[in-house]
Amino acid sequence: MARTSIFSPKFMLTSTSTKSLISFSSLLPSRPLQCKRDLTIAKVASMPYQPLNQEYLEEEFSGHGVTFESIGESCVAKMEIENGSTASLVLPSGLITSYKAQMWHEGTLELLHTSVTEAEDEEDAIIQGGISLPLSFVSDDGQAPWSPTSWSLHNVTGSPSDTIKIEMISNDSEGKIRLKNIVTLEQDMLSSELVVSNSKSSPLRLYGGVMGHLTVSSPDAIYALGLEGSNFYDKRPIATEFVITPPRYGDESQPGYGQVYGKMTLQALASTIGALNQSDEGVAESRRGFYYESEEDGEEGEEDDSYKQLTDEMCRIYTCAPRVFTILDRGKRNSMTVGRAGFEELYLMSPGSVHEFYSRYAYILVGQTAMLKPIIIAAGDEWRGGYYIHNPNL
């Protein structure tokens, strides 16, 4: 199979404008409340960078409801609204690792799923999950494709009484592509807004998107509401530096494949968990590079379920879907609304319910993407897109 790299060979673990996106709130009800392309990511050595200076960040950007904490050569920025909602992101990777939303019972609930594992050298930790940006930009000027590998903090605005914004910036080596990521925390919503400025003399093609791991009790308890009538392609899961995928995804020979815990014997359940854990031990946690490959289309269909249960393994790219839909978790007795702007594709992946409840694989992955068809950004033009998680449980 022919494979061409469109992602920078460097990927490490480690955004405000006067024109805003369409208000996500306006898309909500009145509140009381395999296609032809696959993206695969492989592993790279981390790029060298200067350690972030926590004291400088606190002096320069404190006072808006944001605090900073150094962790090795990285730094965690924590946003906190007075009603108790918080969000955390890591610099320079730009990974959003946490969104704790205030609930009706006056407590908070974590809505993002993050996994921390030990690296091979046993000195560093590998962080996966959360909300990440596997993006790649391709132009026709002969230059190599570019992908954002590290982010610098540009500005912090707002107030903990209402809204806090953190703006990060990443540029290509020539300074011709400027990418902003504006992370906004409100009392009932977290958003990631992308702004791409193309200063090249030729158009840019944007591939990839925004990938968000939503934590759940078990995929068996999860229902996607509002997707009935949407067109989709079934595909293999995207693999990136930060995306979590079960190592034996799609292996129909694994114990308990396609079964729900409630329908399994205790012996089958123990066998399933043991086999998965053993498989995990032999899986390399870090993958480098981002590859673009052409394959025959996966199965194409139309969603016929308005109350879709995500029990089974599934990975779909919806090419025609609502810009806002609801995820209901009957195990945790909460719901969240996910929306997008700018991106035309909805990526929905469930690892299935053969895994232990509240485990590393107790999540669903919802992405806003340009994987089947790239977004074209004309020379000298600007493009905006966004990913939103709304909490209706206040």
What does this structure look like?
The protein is mostly beta strands and 394 residues long. It has one domain (3-247, 283-390): Beta-galactosidase, Chain A, domain 5 (Distorted Sandwich). Helix content is 6%, strand content 45%. It is built from 2 helices and 27 strands. The chain has helices at residues 54-61, 266-281, and strands at residues 3-5, 37-43, 66-71, 74-80, 86-91, 96-102, 108-110, 114-118, 125-129, 131-132, 135-139, 152-159, 163-171, 177-186, 189-198, 204-215, 222-225, 231-234, 288-294, 300-302, 307-309, 314-320, 324-329, 334-341, 345-350, 363-377, 382-390. Strand 23 (324-329) and strand 24 (334-341) form a beta hairpin. It starts with a strand and ends with a strand.
Domain unit count: 1
The level 1 CATH classification is: Mainly Beta
CATH architecture type: Distorted Sandwich
Which range does the strand content fall in?
35-45%
The helix-and-strand class reads mainly beta
Largest sheet: 9 strands, antiparallel
Number of strands: 27
Helix-strand string: EEHEEEEEEEEEEEEEEEEHEEEEEEEEE
Key terms:
6% helix; Beta-galactosidase, Chain A, domain 5; 8-stranded antiparallel β-sheet; mainly beta; disordered N terminus; 394 residues; 27 strands; GH-type_carb-bd; 9-stranded antiparallel β-sheet; 2 helices; glucose-6-phosphate 1-epimerase activity
In short:
This protein is mostly beta strands and 394 residues long. It has helices spanning 54-61, 266-281; strands at 3-5, 37-43, 66-71, 74-80, 86-91, 96-102, 108-110, 114-118, 125-129, 131-132, 135-139, 152-159, 163-171, 177-186, 189-198, 204-215, 222-225, 231-234, 288-294, 300-302, 307-309, 314-320, 324-329, 334-341, 345-350, 363-377, 382-390.
